[in-house]
């Protein structure tokens, strides 16, 4: 693989991760305008499905219907896998409703050690020393990043109980999403896979919306935040990451995609005026270091 292709892949993955990093701040801004989690998630998925449908139609026209089409079995498996995608959106958006965005993204990044545990459980093979060290660094980094020793559980502006609960649930479902996305229906185009996973996620999102929306649905969300949330959450990042990862490989791609963490914290710092202390930046740096350690190859070629 040429250096130009690798640079191109790094650029695409970095842009995709940066887009994801901006998402939670936009959600928080929507909350400040009194939109509900149901309204935010529903508008994002509706616009997202429309956007991915257009991309699929464009690709089908361009390829003159020669692309491999998803079988009914592929569609079922992808929609089932997509339910975890819907859960991740709901859980993560609920988390940032109760806690700062800079803390929410740190909780979401617990997928690093959750993925190791899932791999251990499914493969029945103990993780390597390299992965164990990375997990320990992630846990230490998380303690610093949420400033665990200075948490004020009596702060009336932060609901730590609900925030931590939904944040860790989001990380759990996101771990499932990443695992299934790399295992299910790999023979069809990424646009088709994204579409059917979004449809599966929409079942969860719409069900959640019907159950929790107790006030009349505010359709202004579609003109104010829906398109932005769909672009940065369900359209741009998957397309860029799917285009970039084949050039970078999983290891380098995972390292570059960790840009999502500092971008999310910086967006919260500048746009939401959230306080981010030096010890929290240290924790974020440790989590990124752990991702590097987990994915780098120490063996000489």
UniProtKB/TrEMBL annotation:
SUPFAM superfamilies for the chain: Multidrug resistance efflux transporter EmrE
UniProt keyword annotation of Transmembrane present: yes
Pfam families: EamA
Top-level taxon of origin: Bacteria
Keyword list, A-Z: Membrane, Transmembrane, Transmembrane helix
TM helices/strands, residue ranges: 12-31, 43-59, 75-95, 101-120, 132-151, 163-182, 194-213, 225-245, 252-272, 278-298
Chain ranges of the EamA domain: 8-145, 162-295
Protein name: EamA family transporter
Species of origin: Flavobacterium celericrescens
